[in-house]
Structures are given as structure tokens and as C-alpha cells.
Amino acid sequence: MASNPKIIVIGGGLAGLSAVIKIAEMGGHVDLFSIVPVKRSHSVCAQGGINAAKNLKGEGDSTWQHFDDTVYGGDFLANQPPVKAMCEAAPGIIDLLDRMGVPFNRTPEGLLDFRRFGGTLFNRTAFAGATTGQQLLYALDEQVRRYESEGKVRKFEHWEFLSAVLDSNRVCRGICAMDLRSMEVRTFPADAIIIATGGNGAIFGRSTNSVVCTGSAQSALYQQGCFYANGEFIQVHPTCIPGEDKLRLMSESARGEGGRVWVPRTPGDKREPKAIPEKERWYFLEEWYPKYGNLVPRDIATRAIHKVVYEENLGIDGKPMVYLDLTHIDRKILDRKLEGILEIYEKFVGDDPRDTPMRIFPGVHYTMGGLWVDFTQATNIPGIYAAGECEYQYHGANRLGANSLVSCIYGGFVAGPTAVQYARNLKTASANGHFDAERKRQEENNATLMKSDGTENPFKLWRELGDLMTKNVTVIRYNKNLQETDAVLCRLLERFRHINLSDRTQWANTSVIFARQLYNMLQLARVITQGAGLRDESRGAHYKPDFPERDDKNWLKTTKATFAPDADEPKFEFEPVDVSLIPPRPRRYDAVK
Amino acid sequence: MAEQKQVIFKIKRQPNPTVRPYWEEFELPWHSGMNVISSLMEIAANPVTRDGKATTPITYDSNCLEEVCGSCAMLINGRARMACSALVDQLEQPVRLEPFSKFPVVRDLAVDRSVLFENLKAVKAWVPIDGSYDLGSGPRMTMQEQEEAYPLSRCISCCCCMEACPQFNDDTGFVGAATISQVRLFNTHPTGAALKRERLVALMGDGGIQECGYAQNCVEVCPKDIPLTRSIAEVGGEVMKQAIGDLFRK
Prior knowledge:
By secondary structure, chain A is an alpha+beta fold. Chain A has helices at 14-25, 63-73, 80-99, 132-149, 216-223, 253-256, 284-288, 298-311, 331-349, 404-424, 433-451, 458-472, 479-496, 510-534, 552-555, and strands at residues 6-10, 29-34, 50-51, 114-116, 123-126, 153-157, 159-166, 172-179, 185-189, 192-195, 228-229, 234-241, 248-249, 260-264, 281-282, 322-325, 358-367, 370-371, 384-386, 557-564, 569-576.
């Protein structure tokens, strides 16, 4: 094989761009595919910061502490060696980003500033205002643009990945993709491919995720034979702004900078929040978790808010909302450290959070599960690698705040070089008829959708899917509801066959594109739902009142789903978790761990 | 019984770049908190015009829906702005939606804004690092320097400043405010400054910074309140100094 292999990277967020940079640096050629111009990828939405144990605050922080917090925060479900490696690499990643020009906030001495985030007692989170993801993405985007201008990277923006091209030995030889403008379906050869397509929030309808986060690529690969791991672990972020079109994130950094969550002690209290005296407010997180207070991990804070709202009936004005209060903090500090998120609240709600407490509620936020990968980011299909939120490796049963950015970049930094290494040893395929076959299969899929003249509108089906999943497969899960949900998902898949596209043109047809994504969402929704049904315990973000405890004896295991094409449904197997470095211990945040 | 409040949208449609645009009207039930994007989603779920005619869902660019990805820029009641943060309650009715007028239309409200990314290549809008391996920490920076750089770095490449600029057109080939502001960002970075001269040279001549007519529309429409006119003034001064210096060195 050529010493300058050709790698296809799908997805231009932090993970994808990190992989691109490493590959280009090693002399490889990259074709980079993205639905949106890569600078508009979902990584821009990350707000609060990126974790690295630089120990610049004299607290005695260490990469081992970061590792322990991450494993503990993930309720011991993550395989430990790659998590340890990530935490050890994190300080170097921050330095690199700093060299790339990320405008991280500074201390008076001119060093990087760090703040506290959930699930740790250390100030470990570097940040660029409250738009850290945007700033990191831009830094990587700029480096990739540099490689692009040198001819090492070709971008295919406004293209959507449809499937992998597998040869007769089930080795990946390239991809099949669709031009979202001309609707042309084409195949592209590559020595290896890297999937970096983010999370799947759209399966839950409204979430904090961007429009492109459908999980469609992961689902397509799962249907082609990739394992999908820990699908049932979905993070619900405690503090979001409810909205018509999406749930907008209100970063954990608001609490990192001293924000306090509370509700009026009297149900249905009609007073303005500022008129409610201190002793008539209930700071329930601080009361229940005195050590971590408002900075307990997200699954804990989310369940606490649910309890206060639905069991104690103390939601603001009887509605599902609680206060997130920053009004006691100096305006100048707020502007310097949190401006980006305060601006979002101001623009979308109309109130100034410097003057009045914000009204927030939990919302679906992060996909802990994803494509199964080994410690080198390789999936079980030779030639297919995965990095970032679309894979399952680093966060176990619950992700800690500010760990996503580091896991995306680190995952990309591992996947890029291993893909190049693999490609250099790859033997040429004996034939290449599989390219035409795959293209035809995808063209037929499109043709079938175009011809279908049923009555179902794909956008309406999606709303039903979102409502169903949010109601039954998020914060609190019951087996009976999960079984019913799966049955409804089967009916939705059946109704999908009677779809009617109101648009049958052959140019920039968003209905066809969305219908394809919807089908993949429905298939993946079954993996999430059935996985949740099987796991009879509570661990991290997965909570069943009927099985309220973590059960290491039976469930210290990774869930692995495979698609059974004949039965058109997932099959499950379980794999032990590598806990070779830190023995599992009970996870509790009401005391020091 | 109180009548259900309605919202009227007038949307410019163009199925593809080769056909003439036309207008369609839609009537949607009012909800509290609705914005232009949630309205377009509503239309996709029920693509019927105000006079009851079945039509196609509207094609538009969108992604993050929290005004940080820069995708959903369009003309809303004639003003260049982001659709996600355009709250219907704050808009005059009927709400008119049109694609940007100075970029090639792809379909309906989606336009091709790749020119900005090409411009960023032309001015080498990056910090020329030696490599991605571990080379220790970056340059020290004061809080003040960070506070100058960060607002410039928040540009979301939405192109509102270019759409609103009277000088941004095919005749001038003007590069536009966003790119000039990025030149200021990278030229003030300690490592980025290594390419300062090349960036300034790229802004000389036709289509360069001299095309700016100081209309100040850019700073007016920028959704991120970036001090674009200050960037243009500062970079303009640098370009001038560089040009004079180059002249004497010849």
C-alpha cells in the first residue's frame, strides 16, 4: 500500500478535525465529509470549558485525580486504560490549543485560568469565555484550512454519509455519500474511514443538540454490522432553557462560577424571585449534597430537579422549572467569564440573568453510548474507526462536564494515526464491484422514498418519536414503559413505509434527506430502548426506580448491540468492563468520595 | 371565544438556481416563544400555503439554533440576521423571509456563502504552529490581550456584515468586514504575527480594504457585536503603513 494513504473522515467537529490534522501531519491525504461547513459543526455549542489537570491553582490536582473523577463520575462503566491515557494527554492538548491561538481566559499573571466544574473538587477547567467549544473548533478549523490550502485535505461540505462500502471480506474500502444539493449518490474509495459524527439527540426530538445530531451515520453502520455499545446511556443536562425548536443549554459553568439552584419553599409562590427572602428559598442541591453543592454530576442534579418538581410539586409557578441564580455575582465577573451564555438567555428569553434568576429545566444533552471501539478507536469492521461523541469509550454511564471536548480531541488524535498505520499495511482489494453495488442500493433507497405515496409526513413522525423517547427513555425508566415504547417504535417503523414526501424534486430536497435520517433514528431508538429495558439496575444516567441500586455483580458490563438483518431488530451481548486500575466503589456525592 | 392568534409569513421561494423566484404565504397558529426556525419547522410538518395549496417544505440552512454556528442567516423583514434568534413576537407582520441577495441562491432561503471561507484561506487566517505534537505551553498573554482577542474570535461566519455592506458586490469584489477583522485577530496574536505582512498584502489592491466606504452597516447588523469598524480602521492603517514601507524598500 502507498506510504501516503487516503483516509476519509466523516464529520468536521472537534474529533473529526483532530483526526484530520494528525493524518495530514503524517503525510496522509484526507477527504473530509460534512453535512454542514465544518466551521458550523455542533462542537460550537460546547460552552463551559475543557478539563485538564494542569494544577495551576496550587490544589494538588493530578492526571490521576482527573482519571479517578472521570471513572467515578461515569459510575465505573468505562474501560479504564483509555480513560487514564486521555487524562494524561489532556494537559498537552490544552498547551497545543493555546499555541493554536485559542483565546483562553487568563490569570493576572498571564497564565491560563481554570474554573470548577461538576463532579470534581478541583479547578480543572480551562475556558474561553462561555463559548469554549466554538473557540476550540475554530482553532482546529483554521489549522485544517491551512492543510486544505496546501492540498493535503479536500473538503466535501454539504455531503451526507450514507453507508460504508464493504468488500466481500467485509473490509471497509470507502464510503457512499449523497450531495445534499444535486442529490447525487456517489462512492468514494479510501484505505480507511473515521466516523466522527457526534451524538444522537434528535432521537429525543428537542434536545440541546444541533439539527445535524441525528445519529444517522452511526445507525447506518450499526445496520451494516458495527457493534453499538451502551446505547441506553443518554445524558440529560440539568440546566436548559426550554424552547419551541430546541432546548438551549445553560452551561454548568454558570454553577462553576457560583450559580445557585433553588425553588420557592411554598408551592405556587407567585412572587417575583427577587422578592422571595432567603429563608423562603430552598437550595436543595446544597442541602442534599453539602460537599459538591450545585456542582454534583449532571445525572444527580437532573434527578434532584425532577424530584423537586414532580414529587414535591415545587416547580416555579407549578410549572416544570427551577431557578438558576447568578444575581449575587458581580456583573463584571459575569461578563468576563460567562457572557456568551448570558447573551443566549437574554436573546432567547428576553430577561437579563444578571438581574433576574434564570428559569431552567433538564434536557437531553449527550450520548454516552455509541459505536463500539477498541482502545485504538477501531470498530469491529476492519478499516472503520470512530472518535468523539459517536463512540462510547470515555464517559461510562455519565459524562462529567468539560470532559467531552478533551475526549473528542484525544479520540481524534488516536484515531488519525491508527487509521494511517492500518492503511499502510492494508492489502489491495481483489475486486471492486462492491462500489457499484452499494451505490445502487442507496439509489434504490432514495427512489423508493420518492415513489412512496402513503399519508405519513416524516416531520410529524419525528415529533412522535421525540415525545415518546423523551417521556419513557430519559430520566426515569420503567420496564413496562420501555416494552411499550419498543412496540410503538415498531409501529413507527411500519408507518415509515407509508411515508409521503411532499417534495419530490431532485435538488436540495430536505424531505428525502430527513426521511433517510428518520429511518436510521428509529432503528437506533430501538437499540437505546431495548438496552435500557435489559439493564435491570441503576447506574449513572440510567435510573430505574424498580432497581434503584448499582448492581456490579450482574451489570458491570458493556452493552453491545448488533443488528440482526433478518429479524430487523437488535441482538444484545455483554462484555466485562476493564476495571484493572481503580476498583469499583460506591458512588456518592453527599460526602467526599 | 377568543380567536386563535395567527402569524403570517411571506416567504420567497426558488426551487433551484435556474428558475425565477416567487412568493408564498403561510399562516401559522401563534405560540409563545416561537421564532423563525420553529415556524419553518412547523411548515415542514404541514406544508400548505395560506390559500390551502399543498407545497414543499422550505429549504434553509440551520444547525445549532442558538446563534453560534452561523448557519441560518437570511433576510428577515429586509434585515440580514440569524433566523434562530428572530423571535416572532418581536417582528412586524407579515414576516418576510428572503435569501441573502448577494450570494448565489441554492434553494429557497439557502445560499452559498463559501466565498468567506475562500477569503479566510487567502489571508491565511491561522496561527502557523510547527506541529500538533507536544511543544510546551503557548505564549503568555495578559488578561487585556485576551479581552481584545476574544470578541474578534467570536465571529460566526454568518456573512451578515457582507450582505449589509453597500460595497460588497460583484463590481468591487470587496472582501468584506469579517475577513478584515480576522486579519486583525491573527496579526495581533504573538505567533500569528509571523504572517502579518502576507495578510496585509492580501488586503491591498482591488477588492481589498480600500473598497470600504465606511457605511458602518456591518457593525450595525453583526449578531455578535464584533467591533468591525474598529478592525477595519486598525487594519486599514497597517495596510497603508505596509504599502508605503514596501514602496520605499523597492
